[in-house]
Amino acid sequence: MSEQATSEQTTASTEQAPQSIVNRRQPYPEGFLATISQGWAERPEQLPPLREQAPFAAARRAAVSAAFPGKRLVIPAGPLKQRSNDTDYPFRVHSAFAHLTGWATESEPDSVLVFEPRGDAHDVTLHFRERADRTTSEFYSDATVGEFWIGPRPALPGVAGELGIATAHIDSFVSTDDDLVVDEDDELTRFVSELRLTKDEYEVAQMRLAVKVTSDGFDDIIRELPRIIEHPRGERLVEGVFHQRARSDGNWEGYDTIAASGPHACFLHWTRNDGAVLPGDLILIDAGAEVDSLYTADITRTLPVSGTFTPIQRRIYETVREAADAAFAVAKPGVRFRAVHEAAMEVIARRTAEWGLLPVTAQEALDADRGGQHRRYMVHGTSHHLGLDVHDCAQARREMYYDGTLEPGMVFTIEPGLYFQIDDVTVPEEYRGIGVRIEDDILMTEEGPVNLSADIPRTADEVEAWMARLRG
Length: 472
Ligand code: GLY
Ligand code: MN
Ligand code: MN
Description:
The protein is an alpha+beta fold. It has helices spanning 7-12, 19-22, 30-35, 54-67, 95-101, 137-141, 147-150, 156-163, 186-194, 201-223, 225-230, 234-249, 311-330, 337-354, 362-365, 460-471; strands at residues 73-76, 82-84, 87-88, 112-118, 121-128, 166-169, 180-181, 252-253, 258-261, 282-287, 289-290, 299-304, 411-414, 417-420, 434-437, 440-445, 448-451. The site of one manganese (II) ion (MN) has 5 residues, from loops.
């Protein structure tokens, strides 16, 4: 494929067009220009129905409006990002924009949601680049936004009808020096991030869906293990099998899949995924499908490639599970978020001390100022909020996040691990090269925590039975 220049560009401004287009442009002959705008059927007038997420997004906008009376607020969707030359990354809209509009996968790059103050309230308008009329050259010649190139694009009335928001063309948006803009103004950025700390009913349903697709992706990986083991880059196949499921049943992955086999499991964000998957090793798979609404799961399972754990692998695995269970047991409404991490770390300290890996006692290791020796084997946190972003609510204040309290509606991970690097001479040889993480997605309710990913086997016995069942 090659982009076509407009007739004006072809005749007048060859040297101004990007080099990537100039070198391969073809002029449009008169016959094409005379006929291309004609012969198209009328588009249906019928407007789409209001989407189920619209009332939830409206309530969020009302909260934002009430918090910033008299201020003009701008929430940008964000631009396309260049990958290389004239190719861009797939567009992923800003999460605050998706949250406040309910417009997710289909969002248009460079759109803005504007809160225009009116008295103590706001008029809210979604500005975006509406599709071009078929009489324009944009329709047939613009490879970035032309419908001939990228398929049907939205019109103002259709989006207004689906989202329940007034819409206007992006050309009518004029920024002012007094605007508060998300990612530019700290207070607004923080507010819209903290607004996502508790999820509404629609969001919880989307999180359940994301977990379900992710669970199916893990099943697919186990079924494909015989093929994966045969391939010199088996980790890539793991990534690819999960990607196929995520793309088929959702929008994308919420983050790059970690397919970390053998000693790679000890690299916490191993996304290179270019290693072999060898029988006898463990493989740590950290993956999450992002569904069409852009909510993502974030789940880790660590599997014995051959189907059964060795005694040392099982010991480490079951200790990580013990830490996860201890974290789950303390998670209750009103409890501090940090208490979840502390409960997991208490188990990690106790067990690593018992195994003789620490130069101090477990109690000394847990001392806030002088301890921490056990953290060599688990340097990361145990929990983070989860939702539209894998690390959701990242701009929330510490007192609302790590030092805040758990409330019904919060969705967060519990993900302890133990990682013994291949060259860590502080541990006996049999531990080296083993990395385990178990990560579940938790919904807090009035009655206590619900493990949304509980149906994905967790205990060492369950994992072995799961693998035996799916591999036949
Ligand atoms: N997948 C990244 C994380 O677990 O936080
Ligand atoms: Mn996580
Ligand atoms: Mn994860």
